[in-house]
Amino acid sequence: SHQIWLNSKLILPNIFLTSPVFMPSWGANKAGASLPSKKYKTDVKPPGGSEDITRRLHAVLAKLCLKNSLGLREIQAAVLKTFLVHVDTTLVSQAQEATAEWNSQMQPLKAAGNMQALEDLGSPHVHAFAAVIEVLKESEHLSDTEKPVVCQHDQQYYGSAAETAKVIYVCRLKKTFEKTQKKLHIAVHHSQDPIVDLLEKHVVQSKGKVKRGQPPPGGLEKELQQLLDQLQEMAE
Questions:
Q1: Which phi and psi angles does 93 have, rounded to 5°?
Q2: 220, 229, 236: which is closest to 72 by C-alpha?
Q3: Does the CA dihedral 210-208-178-134 come out positive or negative?
Q4: CA atoms of 70 and 62, how far apart (whole Å)
């Protein structure tokens, strides 16, 4: 006999249904089959003294931090478009100047408690992206047919900080191990893909690079992993 399912509930075979749904042969919980029980780690040693508990607690916390950091790097690889640019390029200098100007405007507004003006000012990443747009407008690496695309997007999407923030989610510079280089992270709404493509062209022809894939562990992760290894060696 068949098992009949309706709205995720098992119906006895002798009940007549006008529109039965039969579980396929490959489906879970087939007749006579039992789901495998989940195995939990049971080889946890009974706690010793306070020093032993503290050492094990530190090891668990370190592993948890490293696991979460790995997950964040995987998400970053899936969400962010990353460029490696030289610090001497106009792209870096103008983005830094824009965020510095944002900070100089933000401080007095924050001190005065002018929340409406702060909201109108927007986030620093919006101002950094506005600087990127200005660089693309003047880029010698874009053709005469590509620059109007930048201007069109500028007029259509970037009329204010609030409007820009609706389609530009991330635009920030980050340090790298090489002092002569910086990372530019970009995350946008799909409507802005043409601008990201033009930005990629500008960066690559300016001797920059597009970074793909999962980024390597940062300095703090490496230091934490070293400490964890030392802690585990001490426990052996």
A1: -65, -40
A2: 220
A3: negative
A4: 12
Backbone angles phi, psi at 221, to 5 degrees: -65, -45
Give kind and range of the element (H or E) at residue 5: strand 4-6
| Residue 202 burial (CB count, 10 A) | 23
- Where helices occur in 18-171 by DSSP H, the ranges are 50-79, 90-112, 115-121, 124-137, 147-157, 161-167
Q: Per the structure block, which two tokens stand in for 229?
A: 């290894």
> Tens digit of pLDDT for each residue in 138-159?
999 999 999 999 999 999 999 8
**What's CA 97's distance to the chain center, in Å?**
25
Alpha-carbon distance of 215 to 203, in angstroms, equals 19
- Find the length of the chain: 236
Encode pLDDT of 67-116 as tens digits.
999 998 898 888 999 999 999 999 999 999 999 999 999 999 999 999 99
Nearest to 195 by CA among 136, 141, 145: 136
Nearest to 52 by CA among 211, 234, 192: 234
3-class secondary-structure state, position 3: coil
Angle separating helix axes 124-137 and 193-205, nearest 10 degrees: 60
Write down the residue that tokens 């400490």 correspond to: 227
How far, in whole angstroms, is CA 169 from its chain's centroid? 10
Structure-derived torsion over alpha carbons of residues 60, 66, 72, 77, reported in degrees to the nearest 10: -150
H-run or E-run covering 38: none
Distances (CA, A) of 173 to 40, 186, 214, 215: 43, 9, 18, 15
Interatomic CA distance for residues 23 and 150, integer angstroms: 54
